């Protein structure tokens, strides 16, 4: 610890190259840097009492870079040597980390089986439900809406109920899912007609109807899989 304090108080130009984050990154690659060294490159310079390596270490204080996603502007401004500009740089990185983590946590639907696994509980429902899943271009779930519940005919579902939420989520893809409580997932004539109508409207409005999946007692029917979309 005493050695660290000694190093931290030295001017950067007085330190050997192997201790300088930029030079180390150029020589050994960016992956060779510790969290503190990466942060040091980001903030650029230290104070008259503490060089940039020491300042980065002070910011982290036994934390790792992902922990910065919980730090606030007020917390950073309490650290001597961190002004608003540096604090915002750090918060920007923290927000990037948070958003990456959020993206990684999103559900991804790459196949009808993925959707079936997610909404398999519909096979136990005694009433008919229509649920719509909204996705981005990477098939990640942005949101879901139940647009109808009860003994229903899909022709009575208003297309606007589907597209209003597509606009709300700024979605790319739409996946419709409903169940047949009586057991068979085979589509009715009305199911086929309704799906074609929504497909046509989706194209006109700039969305992509990725699938319409019907869930029965012991399986599912995918319009996409069967070449009906």
From TrEMBL:
**BP term (GO), one:** proteolysis
Pfam families, alphabetized: RadC (PF04002), UPF0758_N (PF20582)
Sorted alphabetically, which keywords does the UniProt record give? Answer: Hydrolase, Metal-binding, Metalloprotease, Protease, Zinc
What Gene Ontology terms describe what this protein does at the molecular function level? metal ion binding; metallopeptidase activity
Domain named MPN: residues: 108-229
What Gene3D superfamilies does the database record attribute to this sequence? Answer: Cytidine Deaminase, domain 2
Q: Does the keyword tRNA-binding apply?
A: no
Iron recorded as keyword: no
Q: Identify its protein family.
A: Belongs to the UPF0758 family.
Can you name this protein?
A: DNA replication and repair protein RadC
What organism is listed for this UniProt entry? Persephonella hydrogeniphila
Question: Species lineage, top-down?
Answer: Bacteria, Pseudomonadati, Aquificota, Aquificia, Aquificales
């Amino acid at each position: 610890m005493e050695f660290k304090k000694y190093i931290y108080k030295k001017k950067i130009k007085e330190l050997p190259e192997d201790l300088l984050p930029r030079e180390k990154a150029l020589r050994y690659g960016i992956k060779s840097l510790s969290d503190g060294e990466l942060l040091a490159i980001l903030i650029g310079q230290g104070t008259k009492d503490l060089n940039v390596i020491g300042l980065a270490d002070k910011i982290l204080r036994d934390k790792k870079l992902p922990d910065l996603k919980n730090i606030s502007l007020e917390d950073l401004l309490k650290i001597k040597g961190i002004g608003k500009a540096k604090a915002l740089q750090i918060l920007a990185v923290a927000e990037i980390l948070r958003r990456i983590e959020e993206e990684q946590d999103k559900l991804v639907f790459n196949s009808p089986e993925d959707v079936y696994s997610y909404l398999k509980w519909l096979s136990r429902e005694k009433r008919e439900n229509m649920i719509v899943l909204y996705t981005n271009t990477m098939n990640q779930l942005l949101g879901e809406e139940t647009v109808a519940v009860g003994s229903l005919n899909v022709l009575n579902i208003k297309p606007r109920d589907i597209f209003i939420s597509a606009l709300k989520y700024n979605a790319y893809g739409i996946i419709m899912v409903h169940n047949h409580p009586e057991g068979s997932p085979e589509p009715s004539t009305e199911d086929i007609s309704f799906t074609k109508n929504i497909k046509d409207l989706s194209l006109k409005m700039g969305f992509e109807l990725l699938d319409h999946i019907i869930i029965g007692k012991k399986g599912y029917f995918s319009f996409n899989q069967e070449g009906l979309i």
